[in-house]
């Protein structure tokens, strides 16, 4: 079993099977683009969701208020609010932000 969610409001930890750890998309806040102006039309790139994780192919879309929506080609394990998400085009850093929320893969 794995911790799949934390419900701080009700002081609960939710546990579940590994299949509940995968997410197809995330929202990041406090985004800073360093080598492009924005991603309003969507850009393809690689996204790392933690320092030692492999980069994953995704499409990145700018939202309002300094946020982005990242949609991964393949579901990613353990997308975690509070962690950094960094966007790359090969070795070139496009930008990054702080993971605010994620959308879990529908598991049957």
Low-confidence stretches: none
> What is the general shape?
globular
Radius of gyration over alpha carbons? 14 Å
Helix count from the secondary structure assignment: 0
Q: What's the CATH class label?
A: Mainly Beta
User: Count of DSSP E strands?
Assistant: 8
Structural class: mainly beta
Reported CATH architecture:
Beta Barrel
Beta content: over 45%
Q: What spatial order of strands do you see in the largest sheet?
A: 3-6-5-4-7-8
Order of helices and strands: EEEEEEEE
The major β-sheet equals:
6 strands, antiparallel, barrel
Concise summary:
The protein has 108 residues and is mostly beta strands. Helix content is 0%, strand content 60%. It has one domain (22-104): Elongation Factor Tu (Ef-tu), domain 3 (Beta Barrel), CATH 2.40.30.10.
What does this 3D model show about the protein?
This protein has 108 residues and is an all-beta fold. The chain has a single domain, classed as Translation factors (Elongation Factor Tu (Ef-tu), domain 3, Beta Barrel). The protein has no helices and eight strands. The strands form two sheets. The protein has a six-stranded antiparallel barrel. The radius of gyration is 14 Å and the shape is globular.
Task: Kindly list the characteristics that best describe this protein.
108 residues; two-stranded antiparallel sheet; mainly beta; Elongation Factor Tu (Ef-tu), domain 3; six-stranded antiparallel barrel; 0% helix
């Amino acid at each position: 079993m794995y911790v799949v969610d934390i419900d701080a409001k009700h002081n609960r930890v939710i546990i579940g099977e590994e299949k509940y750890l995968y997410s197809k998309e995330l929202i990041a806040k406090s985004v800073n683009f360093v080598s492009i102006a924005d991603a309003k039309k969507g850009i393809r790139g690689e996204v790392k969701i933690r320092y030692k994780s492999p980069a994953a192919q995704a499409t990145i879309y700018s939202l309002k208020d300094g946020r982005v929506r990242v949609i991964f080609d393949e579901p990613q394990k353990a997308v975690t609010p509070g962690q950094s998400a960094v966007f790359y085009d090969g070795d070139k850093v496009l930008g990054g932000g702080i993971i605010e929320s994620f959308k879990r893969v529908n598991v049957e």
